[in-house]
Amino acid sequence: MGSSIDFHPAGSVWHDARRRLKRNPLAMIGLAYLIAISLLAILTPWIAPYSYETQNLQLGASAPSADHWLGTDVLGRDLLTRILYGSRVSLMVALAATGVALVIGISWGIFAGFRGGMTDAVMMRIVDILYALPFMIFIILLMVVFGRSIVLLFLAIGMVEWLTMARIVRAQVLHLKQQSFVSAAKVTGLSDLQIMRRHLLPNVVGPVIVYITLTIPGVMLLEAFLSFLGLGIQPPQSSWGVLIAEGVETMEEFPWLLVFPGLVMSATLFALNFLGDGLRDALDPRASMRASK
Amino acid sequence: MTRMVISRLLQAIPVLFLVIAVTFFLIRLAPGGPFDNERQLPEQIQQNLLASYNLDAPMHQQFLDYLGNLSKGDFGPSYRYPNRSVTELIRTGLPITLELAFYAIIIALGIGILAGAIAALRPGTLQDYVPMALAMTGICLPAFLLGPLLVLIFGIWLGWLPVSGWGYSPGDKILPSITLGSAYAAYIARLVRGGMLETLSQDYIRTAYAKGLSTTQVVWDHALRGGLIPTIAFLGPALAGLLTGSFVVETIFQIPGLGRFYVQAAFNRDYTMILGTTILLASLIVIMNLLSDLISIWINPKLRDPSRESSNG
Amino acid sequence: MFSTPHTVLVPFVLLALAGCDLGPSNIESAPKSQILHLGNGTEPQDLDPHVVTGVTENNIITALLEGLVSENPITLAPEPGIAQSWSVDDSGIRYSFKLRDSARWSNGDPVTAHDFVWSWQRMLSPGLAGEYAYQLFTVKNAEAFNRGDIDNFDEVGVKALDTQTLEVVLENPTPYFLSLLAHYSTFAVHPDTIMAFGKMDQRGSLWTRAGNFVGNGPFVLKAWRLNYVVEVERNPYYWDADRVRLNGIRFYPIDNANTEERMFRTDVLHATSTTPSDKIEVYQDQQPDRIFISPYLGTYFYRFNVTRPPLDDYRVRRALSMTVDREAIVNSVTKGGQLPAFSFTPPNTQGYFPPDPLIQFDPVGARSLLAEAGFPEGQGFPKLTLLYNTSDGHRRIAVAIQQMWKEHLNIEIELENQDWKVYLSRTRDLDYDISRAGWIGDYPDPNTFLDMMLGGGGNNRTGWENPDYDALIRQAATTTDNATRFELFETAESILDAESPLLPIYTYTRVALKHPSLRGWYPNVLDRHPYKYVYIAESDEVQQ
Question: What residues in A contact C395, CB-CB < 8 Å?
Fold first, then answer.
């Protein structure tokens, strides 16, 4: 029975998971890439070849060269430097905003789905209301009341991203509630909280990881949009999303301004997905059984 | 089932009321009114304007008046377009956006479910990696990038398709539909694959195999159904979101849909239009989420079991 | 099992099938059909000349309606329009217009002087709340009527002496009055049509819809499809119909400059309303005959909030102004042939030239000014914020200037962008340090720029006030002799330069794309193109 795994001490679950993850080459490549890019982001101020704000208006947009490996943007700023600095913002946004979405979304979804009835109805109607409120006005008001701040940016993104997460988790929980191991757990006299934590949480991890890896590119691009509106980072700072959005504007004239930030971001997302899939498989309580089948 | 639908529709009333009330007062909190322009208007003209739209009345009175008109089905005049009512703006834009969303979702579902299911059947093989890499590429290409790119390739370099419009010249609906659909296709592919892998490892699938059912039967009758659950939960709001998310595509392709109005209304502080589109969006979300929950139940017969607690959410 | 590649290919096969033949393009068929296709910015708010305020609307309304005077397509000098002639008395206050017999509404009714009186009453009615009512405030008692101080329109200085003669009495001699009459807010509308669809002073009645609209211009409204197109076709009743060569015009509201450029490139449009700045160089290199740059009566500038230290010190303001390298901005950032500006009024505004600029790009001088003001080498200079409304173009300029100030003055400036409406209310409430701004002249005269900076004026928005300046501008307003007026303006402008409440950056240009087959389309400072002179040349003329 799948549920029997759950009665192992928690430590061994994580130990098994780590072991399974290590045996997945793609996931390890993804992990290595992510560690590398995070290190680069952290070390940027020491390793960046130029200052991210120094302009050279005479030079303008120039194609990759020995001086500027990835070329320069329309104000003559070094693109490599701007991508490096951009990674700091983008990775942070991805981490923080999805963190908010995860914590609120999962707990909201599990609780609503498991409790059902009136609790569920009220909680999900709140989600509906939040979906429907005009996002743009919300952003404008946030900016007016609090001014520009990166924390606000994380909040604004997290606040919209958790909604779909909550719905997905709840749907999964409704589905799981019908499974025999949950009723079995009820019979054994576990408290609701224990059932949610021990049985439901591990079983929603799969869709959650998939959805998270899906939302991260969306989150990075949303950051660019919000920054454009004035909520996020302020020029002359940059992020991958901002660089890509600007690159699209000049994709015919200066394609490198789109291609390089695009490649870096895509590579990161691929790595995230490899790792995500690996994690999903590794954390899946039944993974070992399927492997042996 | 019927009871659930009725109760959900009843729940929609407080939802809509709260959305209207919160939006009504929020938009009036945002600085800048609908008639603020670059040139400062003489005080008197400003007053005349506000008076002609009942905007000089006390806030609560305006709200009550709005609700009163709303109950008669009157969404009021647009502040931005003085000779159009909000109803007319929505009636003109909505069918176009709906059509665009419909094509997009057909493309997204068709490609997404197929790619996801194919990938999930042989995880860790080329049959998995190729569709998933394509899906990832789709996710990495947001509409504001994919749209201009497709236009450049098929509209300008190859000259096969028009670069703009909607129903004005042959083939002009193809590029916008693909642009809007592709990101959703990628999402769906990933979600279906994830959901199916989850389901394929469940006990009852193994039972089904044990009963001697063929792979096709197992996949079609069981795995795909279970595998679609996260997708369907995602689709409810996504469909409603298509209406507003179509803004980018409508702008790139010069399509006279509702998405452009929805976004511009906020920037124009076109209060009545913001409210009108928000009410529409809220209704759609209620309906779509209800539909998506109903489909989940339909796909997953166990949830229908009357002996169990009704899933009322 | 299905194989993935095939399914992925399906849309592409569809593409290829659908894309076989797109037929002749708009441009190709135009010499025969004489249909002009224009990119026209945003969706028009309305087509009621007394309600709307925008350039987009102007472009359409001038096809549908004509004022007492029309404009020379090159110089914009007033030319006879619905009025065939006019005279003004020696005081410069009393005008008399003679309407032409042949002027007709598009339903065949004659255009009368009474129509103009009725229309001006409508424009000035408090109930209509026309935002451009102030364009008529030069007319005697017009402002009082608009404010509701007087109810009797007979007291306002406009009268029909007979069906063909209109008399106008002004408050003060106003040298640019005739130019105002080419502005749509002073046009006549057809009274019976307005009344058929609502009250005289009702906003947003349905009279402006296709089928309802009755005009007196070279074209009539044929179709108005929301967010897609406004179509006009020839008006056989137009008094000068013989001169009109176009059979129709289609105005497309296109918000996105890149979309518009792509439509132009695929022969959908004859001319665009703007050009993405990064495309300008490409066209100049490859298709210089398609880029259309005209000077524009407008100034791009920054405002200083002079009520906030340290910007209350003119030396600080001048130092900031002297370290903006305008040449670099117009050459490397905006790239549209804009002129670096050192004074507020654009040069050669109807023959007026601002005084020799006091301010030049001079980082050394600026540093010593800043040191005098108490910030040697930028030390102790507070972190000011530069506010601009959300737009790529404004951001690029702001980032470039931010860097110039850092480099030349060693000061840090923070950038803040807000959406248009928030930006407007912040500048109005003086809730900013430095803000981006632009000003486009309403009529070709220096007054349209310089009266903005009157103390306490609604568009001043800097907190700056100078009694000498105000006195000079007010004196100019009542002076009839142009040479004397210009001298007054020059003196006033030198005060403005010395005090520097504004930081002029460049004089605008309009950069549009224009197909070579489009003829009779001349550059002028208001970017107006009277359509009766426009036509599309034969295709063999196009080949160059």
Answer: 235
Q: Is residue C426 classed as helix, strand or coil in its secondary structure?
A: helix
Mutate to test the interface with A, among C383, C394, C399, C407 (most CBs of A within 10 A): C399
Q: Do A170 and B313 touch (CB under 8 A)?
A: yes
Residue contact C278–A246, C-beta within 8 A: no
pTM value is: 0.88
| 8 A C-beta contact, residue C428 and residue C456 | no
For residue C352, give the DSSP letter.
B
Q: Which helix (H) or strand (E) holds B194?
A: helix B174-200
- With tokens 């330069």, the residue in question is C497
What are the backbone angles phi and psi of residue B299, rounded to the nearest 5°?
A: -70, -35
Do C318 and C500 form a contact (C-beta atoms < 8 A)?
yes
Q: Do B303 and A175 touch (CB under 8 A)?
A: yes
Nearest CA in chain C to A242: C392
Report the run of H or E that residue C223 belongs to, with start and end. strand C219-225
Chain A residues near residue C400 by CB distance under 8 angstroms: 55, 57, 75
The tokens for A219 are 């989150």
Return d(Cα B238, Cα C115) in angstroms, integer.
Answer: 55
Contact C400, C346 (CB under 8 A): no
pLDDT digits (tens, 9 = 90+) for A68-98: 889 998 888 999 999 999 999 899 988 888 8
Can you tell me the distance from the alpha carbon of B126 to that of B134, in angstroms, rounded to the nearest whole number?
Answer: 12
Question: What gap in Å lies between CA C460 and CA C344, rounded to an integer?
Answer: 13
Parallel/antiparallel/unpaired status of strands C434-440 and C339-340: unpaired
Please indicate if any CB of chain B lies within 8 Å of the CB of C456: no
Residue C533 region, left (φ>0) first, then alpha (ψ -120 to 50), else beta? alpha
Question: Nearest Cβ partner of A140 from B30, B148, B302?
Answer: B30
CB B229 within 8 A of CB A172: yes
A76 secondary structure, DSSP code: -
Q: Decide if the complex's ipTM is over 0.90.
A: no
Give the largest Cα separation in chain B, rounded. Answer: 84
Overall average pLDDT of the B63-70 stretch: 94
Q: Is the dihedral of CA C2, C8, C13, C15 positive or negative?
A: positive
Per-residue model confidence as pLDDT tens digits over C226-268:
999 999 999 999 999 999 999 999 999 998 899 999 999 999 9
Residue of chain C with shortest Cα separation from B89:
C226
Q: C291 near C283, Cβ under 8 Å?
A: yes
- Radius of gyration of the CA atoms of chain B, in A: 24
Tell me which H or E stretch contains C84: strand C83-88
DSSP, collapsed to helix, strand or coil, labels residue B271 as helix
| Chain B, window 183-222: residues with a beta carbon less than 8 angstroms from a chain C beta carbon | none
Residues of A with CB under 8 A from a CB of C: 53-55, 57-58, 60-61, 74-76, 140, 143-144, 147-148, 228-230, 234-236, 246, 249-250, 252-254
Measured CA distances, B155 to B96, B160, C515 (Å): 21, 6, 19
Q: Tokens at residue B161, please?
A: 């398709």
Per residue in B288-310, pLDDT tens? 888 888 887 777 666 554 434 33
End-to-end Cα separation, chain C, in angstroms: 57
Q: Pairing relation of β-strands C413-418 and C384-389?
A: parallel
Neighbours of C23 (CB within 10 A): 8
Nearest-by-Cβ selection for B312 from A121, A163, A218:
A121
C262's tokens: 């792509």
Residue whose structure tokens are 């930081």: C503
Between the CA of residue C470 and those of C301, C391, C461, C479, what are the distances in Å? 21, 34, 15, 14
Sign of the torsion angle spanned by Cα atoms B27, B32, B36, B37: negative
DSSP string computed for A83-141 = HHHHHHHHHHHHHHHHHHHHHHHHHHHHHHHHH-HHHHHHHHHHHHHHHHS-HHHHHHH
